[in-house]
Amino acid sequence: MFLLRKIPHKPQNSKSILTVAARFCTTQIPTVNSFPDEPTAAYYDLLVNAAGESRDFANLQYLLNKRVKDHCFNTSNTFKFITNTGASLSVLPDLSRTLARLDKGFTRKSAYDSLISRLCKLELVEQALRVVDLMARENFGLNACTFHPILNVLTKKGKMEEAWRVVELMRKSGAPPDLTSYNYLLMAYCFSGDLDPAAGVLCTMEEEGMKADTRTYDALVLGACKVGQAEGAMVLLRRMVDDGVPVLLSTHVYVIDSLLSRGFYAEAVKFVRGFSGKDTWLDKESFGSLAKRLIKLERLGEAKEVLDEMRERGLVIGDKLKDYYESKITNKK
């Protein structure tokens, strides 16, 4: 197999809190003494979004600078006031100018990166690329990480030509693709079972001196399973273990699903058992995932075997799984 050879809680009063924060932010710039002794990133996100909603850019600049000094770094909620509406998006030019005035270095770069991430979550790739262009022109710390949200959204939507154009843009912008960038491409190809271009990505990674990581193997195992090569997928998994690469639960689930879809129930049990014993959490989740799928397929004998083994190993069986099994047994009577 060619691929094998190429591997070298939400508070009830949240609305009232937001209202108070918005009123506060529009009347004054907070002073140091007005902040809690130990502010959190969530606290800053609340204030930043209130300032953004009210178009209070002076306060927004202050908050974005101060949060980094307080080690409350930007999150996926930092620019949540931006939505996919014309009225909301009209704020982008003023917001971009505000970010340009932030403290140099990490503070400014991380704010731009967070903005790009928000735009990509809204699937506004064109607007995200405009921010990239500004960062490149003004030398605002553009690097491969800046492009990750863009590649993520494009590859998930199967827009591979556009994704490769972004890769080329990365090179031209002095921010060459890294392992994570290539992993996005690899996962997209493997998800669709298109292994020829997947092999091409592996060749490029090898030429650029990159080594496969957890996500690389996860994609390759998925690809093998997509084309019915569960045996090859298990070879890859064994290689992961031998190389000391951490295994994701999803990687195990790909193989479990592949075997079960082909009616290889005993082999699926043997697979999970054979790769157990190194990580208690992974064992619990893998055995539990297998049991749940066997119950759904009404393979209750095999499911009982798996549940019994979980008890013998001291692995916790969740209440939902127990109830699911008992309901199926009851319905069978």
Automatic annotation (TrEMBL):
Pfam families xrefs: PPR, PPR_long
Annotated PROP1-like PPR domain residues: 125-243
InterPro entries noted in UniProt: PPR-containing_protein, PPR_rpt, PROP1-like_PPR_dom, TPR-like_helical_dom_sf
Top-level lineage group: Eukaryota
Renumbered ranges of PPR repeats: 143-177, 178-212, 213-247, 283-317
Alphabetical UniProt keywords: Repeat
Similarity comment text for this entry: Belongs to the PPR family. P subfamily.
NCBIfam families: PPR
Protein name: Putative pentacotripeptide-repeat region of PROPR
